Amino acid sequence: MIPRSALPNLSDAVTPLTAGGRAVVVTAWIDYTPPGQLRYHELLATVAVRHGLAPAGSITEIWVDSATSLAGGRALWNIPKEAATLEFDHSVGFTGAASTDTDWIATAAFTPRGPAAPRTGARFSIVQPGEGQPKVTPVRAWARFRSAASTWTVNPDGPLGYLAGRRPLASAHVSDARLLFGTAER
User: Fold this and answer.
1) How many CB atoms within 10 Å of residue 92?
2) Peptide bond before residue 115 is cis, with ω within 30 degrees of 0
3) Which of 3, 24, 79, 121 has fewest C-beta within 10 Å?
4) What digits encode the pLDDT tens for the residues 122-161?
5) What is the DSSP letter of 6?
């Protein structure tokens, strides 16, 4: 939960969902693996936004280590992907580190706690600025969620600096996930 005044600049096309003057920011470290169309790593921050009655998010920062993903995300969904070096380690829970050619972005470690929940599904939209009107992309997701303890170190002078020194409201270790962006058939 971030004070609305501390949020990164959002497009006028979206309105953050707030409670008590605080907005929800969801961060994720994602390891895309086969049988997906691409194999790459990603770190993102998404602000929960108002868009009809369904859950929605607007991606404010995102880094990938795949030129194909970077170009496709921008062209297809107006997602502002940037290039970064992302290092992931799954040997004990999960640790991740992200940096650009000029500076570090963040590091995080997650330790799963308790059993994984059954695989569940969700539908939401990603709403990004577009020419004239926002670009709305439906997303379907299926995954197993497990509570996790996490520690983050965020570069206070970096692009996620607004998260530096803040504690996550909740953390999860997600596995067996499948994401489907857009309206393509299964």
Assistant:
1) 10
2) no
3) 121
4) 999 999 988 888 999 999 999 999 999 999 999 999 999 9
5) G
**Does the pLDDT of residue 186 top 60, yes or no?**
no
Which residues, including other chains, have CB under 8 Å from residue 47's CB and lie 6 or more apart? Answer: 7, 8, 10, 14, 16, 23, 24, 25, 26, 57, 58, 60
Q: Cα 152 vs. chain centroid, distance in angstroms?
A: 15
| Alpha-carbon separation of residue 24 from 46, 106, 129, 151, 169 (angstroms) | 8, 19, 19, 18, 9
* Cβ proximity of 179 and 140 under 8 Å: yes
Query: SS3 of 8, please?
Result: coil
What is each CA distance from 147 to 3, 94, 112, 141, 180, in whole angstroms? Answer: 25, 13, 6, 18, 23
Compute how many other C-beta atoms are within 10 angstroms of the C-beta atom of residue 18. 17
CA–CA distance, 28 with 37 (Å, rounded to integer): 19
Which segments of the chain does DSSP mark as H helices, in order? 67-77
pTM (global) more than 0.90: yes
